[in-house]
Amino acid sequence: MIQCHSCGAGAPLREHFCPQCTNILQLSRHGDYFTYFGLPRRLSIDPADLEQRFRDLSRKFHPDFFYNGPAPDKLASLERSSYLNDAYRVLRNPAARAEYLLGLEGLSPLKLEAGATGNVKVPAALLEEVFALNEELDEIREAREGGAPREQVAARLDAARTPIARKQDEHERLVETLSARWDADQSRATLEALRECLLERTYLRNLLTTIDREAASLATA
């Protein structure tokens, strides 16, 4: 519950204005982004509906409406506007939304720095692909340093990229499947499977970044 700073009445976390005196409520940090938008805790969100809710709340919280009001109302409008922007930024992005929900459910995903894989444990499901790619990249580098034609090296990089890109596409589809399943059953097992899938997808993206970096260095050599 939120206590109104104006009349002292209590209001549910999903409310933005006091049901008794209609004053804007100060922001409570005990809610979450889904509740703030009046949405159920689900991974599937209609982008158009989310944007409309964002626009409606943006107008209601705009500081201009509280310019001549008391200091607590001004502060509340600024806090709610800022929180609204943060919530919208996360919920409109499917990957960020999934990571945020994992955090709410106590399963914060392991994060990889962009482009970094060397110091991170390879997900078990990707061991074969990672081993094969590292071997191929080592051979490609040796071939390039040995004076192999640029076209030949580029072709090998393209060939190395193909199975990783295919695997990434599989993970994109699996993330969608697991997201829909969690919306339906909201089971811990589904959420844990989604967490692992997201980690593997991030690792795959970083592998593709490594290949692209090799291709870029070849182009500028």
The total of beta strands comes to 2
Give the helix proportion (percent range). Answer: 55-70%
Please identify the structural class as seen in this structure: mainly alpha
Mean pLDDT: 88
What's the SSE blueprint?
Elements: E1 2-3, E2 10-11, H1 33-36, H2 47-61, H3 71-91, H4 94-104, H5 127-145, H6 150-185, H7 188-220
Antiparallel strand pairs: 1-2
Helix pairs in contact: 2-3, 5-6, 6-7
Kindly describe this structure.
The protein folds into 2 domains: 2-92, Orthogonal Bundle (Helix Hairpins), CATH 1.10.287; 124-220. Residues 112-116 have low confidence and may be disordered. The radius of gyration is 24 Å and the shape is elongated. It has helices at 33-36, 47-61, 71-91, 94-104, 127-145, 150-185, 188-220; strands at 2-3, 10-11. A hairpin with a 6-residue loop joins strand 1 and strand 2. The longest helix is centred in the last third of the chain and has 36 residues, at 150-185. The protein is mainly alpha-helical and 221 residues long. The protein is built from 7 helices and 2 strands.
